[in-house]
Amino acid sequence: MEIKNFIGGRWADKQKLQTMPVMNPANGEQLGTVPLSTKVEVDEAVQQAKNAQKEWALTPAPKRADYLYEIAFKLKEKKEHLAQTLTREMGKVIEEARGEVQEGIDMALYMAAEGRRLFGETVPSELANKFAMSVRAPIGVVGLITPWNFPIAIATWKAFPALVAGNTFIWKPSNETPFMAYEMAKIFEEVGLPKGVANIVFGTGPTIGTAMVEHPDIRVISFTGSTSTGSKVAELGGRHLKKISLEMGGKNAVIVMEDADIELAVEGILWSAFGTAGQRCTACSRVIVHKDVKEVLQQKLLAATTTLTIGDGLDPATKVGPVINRAALEKINHYVQLGRQEGATLLTGGRILSEAPFDKGFYFEPTIFTDVHAEMIIAQEEIFGPVISIIEVADLDEAIEVNNSVKFGLSSSIFSQDVNTIFKAQARLDTGIVYVNAGTTGAEIHLPFGGTKGTGNGHRDSGQAALDVYTEWKSIYVDYSGKLQRAQIDT
Ligand code: NAD
Fold this sequence. Notes:
Blueprint: E1 6-7, E2 10-11, E3 19-23, E4 30-35, H1 39-58, H2 61-77, H3 79-90, H4 94-114, E5 121-124, E6 130-138, E7 141-145, H5 153-164, E8 168-172, H6 178-190, E9 198-200, H7 205-214, E10 218-224, H8 227-239, E11 243-247, E12 252-256, H9 262-274, E13 284-290, H10 294-305, H11 326-342, E14 345-348, E15 352-353, E16 363-364, E17 367-370, E18 387-393, H12 396-403, E19 408-409, E20 411-415, H13 419-428, E21 433-436, E22 452-453, H14 465-470, E23 471-479
Parallel strand pairs: 7-8, 7-10, 8-9, 10-11, 12-13, 12-20, 13-18, 17-18, 20-21
Antiparallel strand pairs: 1-2, 3-4, 5-6, 6-23, 14-17, 15-16, 19-22
Helix pairs in contact: 2-4, 3-4, 3-6, 4-5, 9-10
The structure holds nicotinamide-adenine-dinucleotide.
Nicotinamide-adenine-dinucleotide binds at residues 145-150, 154, 172, 174, 205-206, 209-210, 213, 224-226, 229, 232-233, 247-250, 281, 382, 384, 410, 451, 455.
């Protein structure tokens, strides 16, 4: 199937662009092609978005929100089809794909409700007969750049707050996952979203992403992806004085204290580390364990890991699907070899699965390293695959120090039954998200999502915080005294 750009409410039918194939990572089947657009298509999309934005911004927010309700209903109606498509194009197991579509539905409903909120402030003025308030104003045309690992959820985290706030957008999805973007474009068309409000341009990051970041009429770039790409976006965007929101990589850890419920910790680690084959930004990549329970945790984790069924995510029995492509497979393998060289002990896994039935897809065995030191490369860099490193610590202070020793700051978790331990930890863990007695994944859409240090630059997706990315604060003073009143002077 040939994917097309969606610009100004129309599908680019006479597309003369080069294309690249889109593969199913589970079995190498070619699913279709995606166009490799150029700056020309970006310019055209921005023009359409700019034209549409004036009227969209003047449309009352509750009316803009009505479109989001309709989008939510469509997503709900198509949930199973979307989930199957998602699994086919990026490999995550079907249960997780359904969960991801649900996240999009939740976000649509949550942001639709913002149409009747979008709260500002009213405050007393320091002068008599004067009224003071602040309101959220739309920014204009915004650019959304998204990764392949959550091809629908992350787009909804960005597109829906942008829309309800009165912006129009250009979205550049990842080339690995154009089908979810294509499905979203169909929904935008089906609900009758005004032409030009939502535009989708497919192509490579260096070409399309750069053209968006440099475009003078795109005022905000909301990016999710790797820290190395995000740094480039920030650098280029900074030169153009853009507002740049970055959500980037992670090196997330689960801390298991001596009083933890070990069975629960094992379940939490397994789900966080090997769900989505370890390709979540919040995936557990390090297990920081108290020395008194290291042996027992390790044995239980090993036993549980070896029972995981690996395979095509469409098979409901599968627990670990493929990774996205060959380059990912090789990158994971590189880190595993590095771990061995660094002196970590390989407890299980460590292999690319190349025999039938895995030979046509990209499968890596769930892998556990133990006797890992916090400063080893495998314990510091994002691997983005089903690999965890077990690090032993003596006490809570050391656990927190190890957790905080990486350049990323997305999510962390602690398993303990002691309220004092838990509260001390949540205050000192330097990540944007902290879980207690749960793994490192499982964010809910009405709380801010994002991280500190190398994970982000201070902005957040999701929750009320997302609105800050797509709005400017406007302060309005209404003086009804009939005379000139000077603030700070005539008080
Ligand atoms: P990536 O950085 O390779 O690509 C992300 C997007 O940026 C893609 O659409 C890509 O085409 C585009 N891009 C590439 N080069 C560009 C450039 N020069 N200018 C502008 N855009 C460019 O990341 P990926 O492999 O798609 O995704 C995996 C990464 O995303 C991991 O590091 C993961 O941790 C991170 N991630 C972070 C979050 C979060 O919220 N913190 C969520 C999901 C994924």
